Amino acid sequence: VQLVESGGGLVQPGGSGRLTCTVSTNISSFTGVGWFRQAPGMERELVIGIIATGSTKSADTTDGRFTISRDNAKNMVYLQMHNLKTEDTAVYYCKAWGSIGDYWGQGTQVTVSS
What whole-number distance in Å separates Cα of residue 46 and Cα of residue 73? Predict the structure, then answer.
């Protein structure tokens, strides 16, 4: 199973962005998929996740600015980010988990800076 993130880059504060996670297998096979991030010197933390029922869980630090969606037909997971702040700067990772195992992508850098 491979997960590949794309869409990272430099964004100005207050801007928006969208990350895409392409999964090499049927994402319906997983209990859930989600986005995590890791800033320099910090531990990796959950940004937002979604489970098969459609229920989502997000970090308080995102203040509702981030949303997650999944396209089961394309085996893709999206992270839509709005009103980005400098503290959102981090490497963003996609993760899929379930009875068949836990899998991570290689990460994509998001830098929020003017």
Answer: 25
HSE-up (13 A, CA, CB side) for residue 6: 5
Query: Across residues 28-56, what is the average pLDDT?
Result: 94
Q: What is the pLDDT of residue 46?
A: 96
Q: In this predicted model, what pLDDT tens digit does every residue of 49-79 receive, in sequence order?
A: 999 888 989 988 888 999 999 999 999 999 9
Q: Are 18 and 6 in contact (CB under 8 A)?
A: no
Give how far Cα 43 sits from Cα of 65, 77, 89, 102, Å: 21, 23, 13, 18
Query: Smallest Cα–Cα separation from 91: which of 14, 1, 5, 2?
Result: 5
